[in-house]
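#struct-help
A.M.: can someone run this one for me? Single chain, 117 residues.
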Amino acid sequence: MSIRPFQTTLATLPAAAAAPAQANPGSAKMAGKVPVQSLARAFSILEVLADRPTGVSLADLSRLVGLHKATVFRLVRTMVLLGYVTQTAEGEPYRVGEQFIGRKGREPGAPMVKAPA
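D.P.: on it. Structure tokens below:
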């Protein structure tokens, strides 16, 4: 399976968030150009994972979104804890999690994240 480069461009962002000559909303060069940089980065990771149902390694994910592996790891780890990303075992590829998959067809107004017990 060949890995295609990250496809989202600034053309997909609202005009107020877009900056000229930038192609990756997750890159460090984008700092200060979107209202919440960590959200742009997290969504770029989710988009890559959603396009690859067999999963993506941390190294490939880092390369595809244009971020350092440590940054991607922290973001992915948070999404794993929330259920939006899954990894079956250490070293296995990351995949979209049930919490993300379950959004499709959810009734409007239904809670997005389960309340803590």
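A.M.: thanks! Residues 10-14+23-101 form a domain with the Arc Repressor Mutant, subunit A fold (CATH 1.10.10.10).
D.P.: also worth noting: The chain has a mean pLDDT of 74.
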